[in-house]
Design goal:
The chain has 196 residues and is of the alpha/beta class. The chain is built from five helices and eight strands. The strands form two sheets. It has a six-stranded mixed beta sheet. It is globular and about 60 Å long.
């Protein structure tokens, strides 16, 4: 197929995706929020509550990260680093993982991450949000919360997987003739979010 024909077909697909995104935003606007408790998380200086993670915002984005054992979760988190300063101009943002605060701090420093992290290891947060698999393994994703007076409500969430909308690298690779082309190579089943 000629370059121009394929380019036109791809442009049409992108318009369809944009239309679907608009429908998704419309659906989120109609959701009946689900109240959640004010979970407590571990941080290096002690503990922090979910309500405190909003900062000055009415909205909060919490990433469900599987921790240092997951190379894909690290890939996603590397991407948050670049957008963090922009995201926090609109909403609170934090990455939650089962790792201890000391492990999180050391790993974040090694990656140059600037976003805040909390440990949900000693809470039911990940399980209650649906980010623990039937086999008991952690699952990656994102939950969005909103203040509703004195209450906290969850308004949306979605899981992460290779090829999703939350890691830009997949979309660049989609433009290559061979796609991901076997990248990144073999990944240990025990440390990959795609196999939990």
């Amino acid at each position: 197929m000629k370059y121009e024909d394929v380019s036109g077909k791809l442009a049409d697909y992108r318009r369809q995706i944009a239309d679907i995104r608009e429908k998704m935003r419309d659906a989120i606007a109609t959701v009946e929020p689900k109240e959640v408790k004010d979970y407590e998380f571990a941080i290096a200086s002690g503990t922090v509550r979910l309500s405190e993670l909003f900062g000055d915002h009415e909205d909060l984005i919490v990433i469900h990260n599987m921790g240092v054992a997951c190379s894909y979760c690290t890939l996603w988190a590397d991407g948050y680093n670049g957008i963090h300063q922009h995201v926090v101009s609109r909403a609170g943002f934090v990455v939650s993982s089962p790792d201890s605060p000391n492990v999180q701090k050391k790993f974040a420093e090694s990656r140059g991450w600037r976003f805040p992290m909390v440990s949900h290891a000693d809470s039911s947060f990940a399980a209650d949000m649906g980010y623990v698999s039937a086999k008991g393994g952690w699952m990656p994703g994102v939950s969005v919360f909103k203040r509703d007076g004195d209450a906290i409500v969850r308004v949306s969430d979605t899981g992460f997987s290779p090829g999703d909308d939350f890691c830009a690298i997949w979309h660049f690779f989609d433009m290559l003739p061979g796609g991901v082309g076997g990248w990144p190579g073999p990944v240990k089943k025990s440390s990959c979010c795609a196999t939990s």
